[in-house]
């Protein structure tokens, strides 16, 4: 073993000399195969798309609370524009914010660093993955400006609305939207294969399966879930594209097709997709909680097996999205049971986090606040899901704002809280400087409080019978009462406040990046391998002759036999 | 420009070479793509017994010839792998060339078959059976084309004695393309 390692290192040092000659900006930042640069490309593209998605939310929330208003920065919203805005808001937040940031950015940045490797196993495929993703961004943005406007058939894109341009009136927009989603899938399949093989094969000597930090496991399990669930949707998307472009009849019942087929194919992917983005967020939270509770996580293997169980179960719940689509009621019963079952492993994961906190010496840093907020807010999202998973109750809640508030209480903790949690925690490693804690906490409270004021009123409105995808509630007398408008205005004004507080984050990020306090190698006194190298890590992550070797698991905090309350994974016993 | 492989690529904690591991994951993702398509087709086919009339117009003997061509090309891919194991790059390249020839034969037969069917009015919009027929076989044909092109690159390298392990990897992929056809042939041609 020692021989092969030394041999490999010689290859390595020979290889690294190639990289040290002068690289121009284009080669270094746009054509780089370095996993850290690709991670940052994903991170900032994702954040940029998140801002666009937030802007869209702002425009249509203004229209909903103050119908007919000329929205500052947009103008008056037409019904077609409204549909395009809600469709692309949903698509962007899931496919172009949650996926690239939580899986691609954190996966690229963390996996090689945390397992003690110098890069991904296929660096050039990694680069290709980002380039395809970037093209998908351009195609999606272009789809908003073509003749007829952007696609307005909702992110679920149900036929016949999405298949027939005589219905959706966005001939080009809907095809471009579908193309953008397809390209995004290709990018993540390539990236996912990279993550999975890297974790399986490239671990540092001594790192056994149970020595891998939870967040790496979670990103890889999520990649496997994505890979196994997206296939049928790719097939379905090809059929939808043919229906749009070649005029086939896969989803047209008058020609022997079936529109429900799309719903099955879409949700067979769509529901596991929730867990695809949830698991990395949980992984980030678990790692942050262990570090700042200064405690070993409660049940490492439990978390791992639970995540796998969640993944397996997630393939058997998809039809709960179709309880009112005319499926067999006996099938609805089966899917009610599986759906309620999946809350067991998820509850288990939250209990593990709470049990880890118990008796720990908790440090309320900004990342820890985000992690605690994740538990609190995701809990609300999960509990409200029980009502929707039960087919009897769902008949009444289906397609109301209750559903909308429910999934925002799951996706907001995942995509926004999870991202901020990970970003503030690993910022010192990414950029070598500490973020400002005061500004971080201002941003935290300025995000969390308005978030609840946005979506709790929407729960109430949903129970009051307010349906989704309605352009102007004034057209429906029973939904146009002053008490309903007050709730809508509370939600919209809270959104404005929340969006305004994001400026604090971007100011903090840029200011800390340029002028923050130097972080050093391990500012949080954490155990995992990424904290054993320089901040930011150099190309190759460690000097070729000092690649880390692992001696223990990642969560050995507050070990009774040790003076220090942490025990890095690479420190010989 | 020579690309130095990172240390990560050279490690093998599982004992399986990284390239082979990745190819198997690629196949896992492909299986579900074809699985979704064929599953949808099967559900529709069971619900529409009248599609048998449309399926009767497919030419089973052409499908059978193509099955034979593909299976033979898989055989030469195996021989190429054996040659590569022995370190005989030139022999491996020659056998991969034969495999590419098999792929081309398959595509030529397929294009004549499709041209004939289209000229008889059985286009992709004729009815949903034909939509599935062209979509499934077309997706498969795309894989044949992609496999053939990649095989060309692998053979080019193998002829110069470089990257011989890739002969096995493209072989694994090629067998998968073959297996997909083994599912398509009875479902689209034989079932009447």
Give me the count of strands of chain B.
Answer: 0
Weakly predicted, low-confidence segments of chain B? none
- The Rg value of chain B, from CA coordinates, equals 19 Å
Shape descriptor of chain B = elongated
- Give the percentage of residues in beta strands of chain A: under 5%
- Can you identify the CATH superfamily of chain A? Cytochrome c oxidase-like, subunit I domain
CATH architecture of chain B: Up-down Bundle
What does this entry look like structurally?
The complex is a heterodimer of chains A (573) and B (192). By secondary structure, chain A is mainly alpha-helical. Chain A has a single domain, classed as Up-down Bundle (Cytochrome C Oxidase, Chain A), CATH 1.20.210. Chain A is 66% helix and 1% strand. A two-stranded antiparallel sheet of chain A has the order 1-2. Chain B has 7 helices and no strands. Chain B has 192 residues and is mostly helical. Chain B is elongated, with a radius of gyration of 19 Å. Chains A and B meet through helix 1, helix 7, helix 8 and helix 9 of A and helix 1, helix 2 and helix 6 of B.
Q: What's the layout of helices and strands?
A:
The complex is a heterodimer of chains A (573) and B (192).
Chain A: H1 2-19, H2 25-30, H3 35-65, E1 70-71, E2 75-76, H4 79-114, H5 123-143, H6 165-168, H7 171-201, H8 214-245, H9 259-293, H10 300-313, H11 329-357, H12 366-389, H13 391-397, H14 401-431, H15 437-463, H16 482-515
Antiparallel strand pairs in A: 1-2
Helix pairs in contact in A: 3-4, 3-5, 3-16, 4-7, 4-8, 4-9, 4-14, 5-7, 7-8, 8-9, 8-10, 9-11, 9-12, 9-14, 10-11, 11-12, 12-14, 12-15, 14-15, 15-16
Chain B: H1 7-10, H2 18-47, H3 51-55, H4 60-85, H5 89-119, H6 128-159, H7 165-190
Helix pairs in contact in B: 2-7, 4-5, 4-7, 5-6, 6-7
């Amino acid at each position: 073993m020692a021989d092969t390692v030394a041999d490999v290192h010689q290859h390595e040092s020979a290889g690294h000399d190639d990289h040290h000659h002068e690289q121009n900006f284009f080669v270094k930042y746009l054509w780089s195969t370095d996993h850290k640069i690709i991670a940052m490309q994903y991170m900032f593209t994702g954040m940029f798309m998140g801002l666009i998605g937030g802007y869209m939310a702002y425009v249509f929330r203004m229209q909903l609370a103050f119908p007919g208003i000329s929205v500052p920065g947009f103008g008056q919203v037409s019904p077609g524009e409204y549909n395009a805005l809600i469709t692309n808001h949903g698509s962007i937040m899931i496919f172009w914010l949650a996926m690239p940031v939580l899986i691609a950015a954190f996966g690229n940045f963390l996996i090689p660093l945390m397992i003690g490797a110098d890069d991904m196993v296929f660096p050039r495929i990694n680069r290709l993955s980002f380039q395809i993703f970037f093209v998908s961004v351009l195609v999606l943005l272009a789809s908003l400006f073509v003749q007829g406007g952007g696609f307005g058939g909702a992110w679920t894109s149900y036929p016949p609305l999405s298949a027939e341009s005589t219905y959706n009136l966005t001939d080009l927009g809907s095809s471009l939207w579908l193309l953008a989603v397809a390209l995004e899938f290709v990018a993540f399949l390539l990236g996912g294969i990279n993550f999975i093989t890297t974790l399986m094969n490239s671990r540092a000597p001594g790192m056994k399966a149970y020595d891998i930090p939870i967040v790496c496991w979670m990103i890889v399990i999520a990649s496997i879930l994505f890979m196994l669930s997206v296939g049928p949707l790719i097939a379905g998307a090809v059929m939808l594209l043919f229906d749009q472009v070649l005029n086939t009849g896969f989803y047209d019942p008058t020609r022997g097709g079936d529109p429900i087929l799309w719903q099955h194919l879409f949700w067979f992917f769509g529901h596991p997709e929730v867990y695809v983005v949830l698991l990395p967020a949980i992984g980030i939270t678990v790692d942050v909680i262990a570090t700042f509770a200064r405690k070993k996580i409660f049940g490492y293997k439990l978390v791992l097996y639970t995540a796998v169980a969640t993944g397996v179960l997630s393939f058997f719940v998809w039809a709960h999205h179709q309880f009112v689509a005319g499926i067999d009621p006996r099938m609805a019963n089966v899917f009610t049971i599986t759906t309620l079952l999946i809350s067991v492993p998820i509850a288990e994961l939250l209990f593990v986090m709470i049990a880890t906190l118990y008796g720990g010496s908790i440090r309320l840093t900004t990342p820890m606040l985000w992690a605690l907020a994740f538990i609190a807010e995701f809990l609300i999202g999960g509990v409200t899901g029980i009502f929707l998973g039960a087919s009897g109750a769902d008949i009444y809640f289906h397609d109301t704002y209750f559903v909308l508030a429910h999934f925002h209480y799951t996706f907001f903790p995942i995509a926004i809280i999870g991202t901020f949690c990970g970003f503030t925690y690993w910022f010192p490693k990414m950029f070598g400087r500490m973020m400002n804690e005061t500004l971080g906490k201002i941003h935290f409270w300025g995000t969390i409080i308005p978030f609840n004021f946005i979506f709790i009123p929407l729960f109430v409105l949903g129970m009051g019978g307010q349906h989704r995808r309605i352009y102007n509630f004034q057209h429906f007398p029973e939904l146009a009462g002053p008490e309903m408008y007050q709730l809508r205005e509370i939600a919209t004004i809270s959104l404005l406040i929340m969006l305004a507080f994001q400026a604090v984050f971007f100011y903090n990020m840029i200011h800390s990046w340029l002028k923050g306090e130097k972080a050093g190698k391990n500012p949080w006194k954490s155990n995992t391998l990424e904290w054993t190298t320089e901040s930011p890590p150099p190309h190759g992550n460690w000097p070729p002759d000092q690649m880390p070797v692992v001696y223990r698991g990642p969560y050995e905090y507050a070990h009774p036999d040790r003076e220090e309350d942490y025990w890095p994974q690479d420190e010989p016993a | 420009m020579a690309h130095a492989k990172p240390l990560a690529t050279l490690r093998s904690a599982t004992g399986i070479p990284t390239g082979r591991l990745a190819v198997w994951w690629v196949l896992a993702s492909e299986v579900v793509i074809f699985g979704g398509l064929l599953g949808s087709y099967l559900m529709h086919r069971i619900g529409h017994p009248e599609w048998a009339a449309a399926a009767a117009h497919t030419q089973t003997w052409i499908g059978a010839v193509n099955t034979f061509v593909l299976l033979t090309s898989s055989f030469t891919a195996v021989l190429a792998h054996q040659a590569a194991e022995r370190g005989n790059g030139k022999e491996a390249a020659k056998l991969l060339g034969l495999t590419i020839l098999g792929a081309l034969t398959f595509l030529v037969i397929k294009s004549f078959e499709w041209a004939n069917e289209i000229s008889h009015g059985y286009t992709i919009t004729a009815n949903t059976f034909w939509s599935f027929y062209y979509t499934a076989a077309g997706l498969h044909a795309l894989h044949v084309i992609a496999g053939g092109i990649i095989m060309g690159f692998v053979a080019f390298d193998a002829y110069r004695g470089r990257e011989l392990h890739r002969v096995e990897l493209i072989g694994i992929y090629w067998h998968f393309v073959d297996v997909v056809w083994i599912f398509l042939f009875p479902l689209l041609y034989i079932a009447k």
